Amino acid sequence: MTIYDYSFNDGKGNKISMENYKGKVLLIVNTATGCGFTPQYEGLEKLYDSYCGKGFEILDFPCNQFGQQAPGTDEEISQFCSLKYKTKFPQMQKIEVNGKNELPLYTYLKEQKSFAGFTGLKGAFMNKFIASIDSDFKNNSNIKWNFTKFLVDRNGNVVERFESTVEPKKIEEKIKSLL
Fold this sequence. Notes:
Elements: E1 7-9, E2 15-17, E3 25-31, H1 40-51, E4 56-62, H2 74-84, H3 104-112, H4 123-133, E5 149-152, E6 158-162, H5 172-178
Parallel strand pairs: 3-4
Antiparallel strand pairs: 1-2, 3-5, 5-6
């Protein structure tokens, strides 16, 4: 199977095929509206504004699995993002990224790129925090928290996984190199 064999629902419940994104560079992100990383929406929108016309797309998957930080309906989440962060990139239906109800696309993404490690200013905090929830977190591919990002090239290859602590601007050069 390839990434293009998967589908999901957009924020309005319409079925979307990954085939629609063939030939594009993708950043696939699980998001939340009430998280300490929520301000990353601003950086994501800057990336989108800069590169959407050049074959770049962001797929935003709200997820309420981490600290219940994505409450509300799909419509409420969409309104929050567009009003507070002026997001224009596609937002999908709220999903689960781990466990028996995880979106199959996320199963695939995690099989392609496992946990990459927390880095940056919040890295030490996140290592300690996630270890208190899952002592074996470094040895499994589960999504650890909100705003985990997967970068996919134009051929559908998952080229890199960036954990929550990686700010969108730190990914910009990698995106440019794939465009």
